[in-house]
Amino acid sequence: MPNPNRGSCGYQSSEFEPEYDRPSKSQLKREMTALQKLGQELVEQARERVKRVPMPEDVREAILICQQIKDHEGRRRQMQYVGKKMRTLDETEIALIQKTIDSWKGASKSETAAMHALERRRDKLLSDDTALTELMAEHPHLDVQQLRTLIRNARKEQAENKPPKAYREIFQILKELQKAQRAAQADDSEDADLDEDQEDEYDQEQHHD
Question: How far is CA 28 from CA 33, 99, 209, in A?
């Protein structure tokens, strides 16, 4: 009696068919889109930043060329080429690029937050006289007379709806004070590290003796 499972098309069961762990078309499309977007982010960055990103030179060159193209259609074609080059990267290279971009975004958020903090402090100087006393306590070398004059002028500008010249100058002074404060903190940190290193050396010398 002929075997009913056999025939011109062989076994009907899929039990013996090998399983392939292939990514789906939709997954591949998502990955391609993500890489294209990553390339676009790099194209939109400053050239000097792109030059410092860890990536193969041929990929970097494609990005730098794209940045120089002004013609819409030419730039679109080059952007497609950038996407093609991005797809030649391995997972480690992609991760490094993503990490670099994320660090830029983190720095940008931090800078924006610091700027908003300075703006709030400037507004407080105009609305509350005690804010100047607090600032003087933080920065003893502050030119108080100059700042008092600027605050008075900024209030006048607002009252008379004039261009905010003094208002902007106050922001610049606050920005410089913040910059000096950060530099001083960095120096203190370096001195502390140096002191620790010297203590370690002293302890090692005592141990050897």
Answer: 9, 22, 66
Q: Which amino acid is at 72?
A: H
Based on its alpha-carbon atoms, the radius of gyration of the chain, rounded to whole angstroms, reads 31
From the CB of residue 39, how many other CB atoms can be counted at a distance below 10 Å?
25
Answer yes or no: are the C-beta atoms of 177 and 139 closer than 8 Å.
yes
In one-letter notation, the amino acid at residue 192 is: A
Q: What is the pLDDT of residues 162-201, one digit of tens each?
A: 999 999 999 999 988 888 887 777 766 655 555 555 555 5
